[in-house]
Design a protein that fits this description.
mainly alpha
Length: 103
């Protein structure tokens, strides 16, 4: 009879411990500060880091372009001629028009 009570007590302890562990796992996984929330936040963080790095690259390109426009006279002339159709005094600018009317 004593061994039956010991087995029963051990079984109750095991079941109770199992419920306790299951409860803790559920809390850790599904709570507001749980694992799923952590993964979502990490995913958002990775996306933001990618956007930041992309923006930094764009800024670097724009700063390089700005420096060229401030200092490189040949580049300034190239931009003035190609984008703004400017010419030096005495130069003639010819625009070729295709038969379809497209420039």
């Amino acid at each position: 009879m004593i061994s039956y009570k010991k087995k029963r007590n051990k079984t109750i302890i095991k079941v109770g411990f199992s419920f306790y562990v299951a409860f803790l796992v559920l809390i850790l996984v599904f709570s507001e500060s749980g694992y799923i929330k952590l993964k979502k936040i990490q995913n958002i963080n990775n996306q933001l880091e990618y956007e930041i790095n992309s923006t930094i690259k764009i800024i670097e390109k724009l700063e390089f372009e700005k420096n060229r426009l401030e200092q490189d006279l040949v580049y300034i002339e190239k931009i003035a001629r190609s984008e703004f159709k400017m010419a030096k005094k005495g130069e003639k600018v010819f625009t070729i028009i295709s038969k379809r009317g497209n420039n």
